[in-house]
Amino acid sequence: MNMSDIKQLSDEDVTKHISENQHALMMMRFDKSKNELKNPSSMKKARKTIARLFTFKNMNKAGVS
């Protein structure tokens, strides 16, 4: 999910996506510990998406567009 997609979301959707991605990242960590993770780069993508979502949420809170 890139920033242009995120800008089209409402605040509630951003919060929902944050929690979904955090849960997905947690499940990936469990799979990694059991050596069942098929695509290790998906963890990096999930972390970056979560960071983008938090950045957008904080920008909205600060009033920056």
How many independent structural domains?
Answer: 1
User: In CATH terms, what is the fold-level topology?
Assistant: Helix Hairpins
Number of helices: 3
What number is the mean pLDDT?
A: 94
Terminal CA distance reads 18 Å
Oligomeric category = single chain
Under the CATH scheme, which class? Mainly Alpha
Query: What is the overall silhouette?
Result: elongated
- Rg, nearest Å: 13 Å
Order of helices and strands: HHH
Largest sheet: none
- CATH architectural arrangement: Orthogonal Bundle
Could you explain how this protein is built, in words?
- With 65 residues, the protein is mainly α.
- It has one domain (3-59): Orthogonal Bundle (Helix Hairpins).
- It has three helices and no strands.
- The relative contact order is 0.18.
- The model has no long low-confidence stretch (mean pLDDT 94).
List the helices and strands and how they pair.
Blueprint: H1 3-7, H2 11-33, H3 41-62
Keyphrases for this structure?
Helix Hairpins; 77% helix; 0% strand; 65 residues; mainly alpha
Put the structure in a nutshell.
The chain is 77% helix and 0% strand.
